[in-house]
Design a protein that fits this description.
single chain; mainly alpha; globular
Amino acid sequence: MQPVEPDVMTSRVVGIEDLTVIRNLETALEEEMKNCAAYKAYATSADDEGLPGLASLFRAMAEAEQIHAGNHARVLRHLGGSPAVSVPRPRVERAIENLKSVLVDQRFEVDYLYPAFLTSAVSLFDSTAMRSFHWALEADKSHARLCSEIVPRLNSDEGARWALEPHDFYVCGLCGYAAENPAEENCPACNYLREKFEKIR
C-alpha cells in the first residue's frame, strides 16, 4: 500500500470538515425555515382571534427567522451546499399556546442548536459559518427574552390589553435581532446601524 501524500491527506480532511459544516448549515436552515412558516401562520391565526399585539410579535419573529435562513443559505451556497429544504405544514393552536411554542423553539436554538454548531465551526476554523451561527444565536436570545417577558404578562389585565392592540417591533436586517423598544444606537448582536432596523407591525 502506497503512503498518502500529505497534501492529498489534508485535502481529504478539509473535505470532511466542510461536509460537517454544510450539514450543520442545512440543519440550521431547515429549522429557521420551519419556524418562519410556523410564525407566519401564528400571526394569521392571532389576527383571526382578534389579538393584533401577538400577531405583530409573530410577524417580527417570522421576519427574523427569514433573515437567519437567508444568512445560512448564502454561506451554504458559498461552500457548495444546497439551500433547498422541505418545510412541513405548521400546526397552529390558540395564540397563547403558539407563543409558548415560539419560546420553546427559541430556547432550543439558544441552549442547544447554535452552541453545538458554533463549537463545531470554531474547531474547523470556518469563519463564515461561525458568523452566521453567532448572529442567529445572539438574535434568538433576544427572541427568547421577548417571549419570556410577554408570556407571563398575558395573565394580567394590562397584558390582555397589550395583546388587543398592534405593536411595532424592530428587527435588525443583518442578523435578525428583535426588540419592541430598542434603546441602543447599534444592534447589540451584530453592531448593525439602528437606523437600518425594519419596523414590523
